[in-house]
Automatic annotation (TrEMBL):
Listed Pfam families: DUF3598_N
Gene name tied to this protein: LOC100791812
The DUF3598 domain, residue ranges: 71-249
Name of the protein this chain belongs to: DUF3598 domain-containing protein
Amino acid sequence: MASSSSSSSIQCSVWVPSLLNTNTNTNTIHFLSLKPNSITFSSSFSSSLTRIRIRASSSSPTVEEAAMSIDNLRRFINLNSGKWNGSFYQFDSSGNMLQQLSTKLSASSYGEDELMSLIQTLYIKQPSSSTSISGDDNDAEWAEYKIKETNMFTVDKYQQIGFFPSEKAFALRYQTAGMLETVLRQGVLGEDDTGEESPRNLKLPSRRPSVVCENCLYSLERDMRARAFHILEPRGTVDMLIVFLEERSDGAPPLLESSRDVKSRIIPFLGKWKGHSITKRSGVYGSTITNADTVVLHEMDNNGQLIQAQYQTIWLHLMEVIR
């Protein structure tokens, strides 16, 4: 008998005040080295992100509040709608910047209530072709990419969005890294892309990643956001990190800032963060939900390296079994 199954997961953190005391798993990760020439958020945006996390910790939303109801979907669509100017950054697993590109995102909606849908089109600025005559930046071409629609069906079946309206934050997962590969190919190679599977001087995400997850935080002071992607290889190791820094405006796109004062900017994020994660896995014989109380500990060692320790208490719920 032949059978097939699919597995998908996303971790959405809901900050709760309780401490863990039983059935605890511990995992310590050396996350990245903070070098003098590291790329960090500009100070104004970094402080806004800090306030977002403090608000999330104190408001303690419930799992039900994070679920995607019709009202939450409407708020999610309103939060994302508009025209966004952005900068795209690609980093390797050690935090070294590989690429910086310019992007634009146009988002709008149609339909009402349970038929509402968010439609998004991403535009990637292409480099001048090797056969191009004009080198004028005003003549630059923009490649177009249609992002999968978001509606009541896709948020549960495909994207599994965890949305936290009060904190203006959300997390979702992708089935492939196709969108990110398109951005890299169009933004770095442009019309010179021959379709080669592994172009020289360009690191593309794995064709069969185990996890592609997006986490987004909005500034509480400006109409600005950071969308961070982490991509894991099939073996489960970090493949690359990608950041879209975007502002809803017609002006110049926001930029990440290079600074030597990296350590002081990471200090607000050090310490113990308590939360709750929900992971949904689906397959041909049914699906399960795994819940876990979590504690994440961020510390800085004497070498300026950020160390992340994770603790979690896990319990499993069987949602549905099809025989």
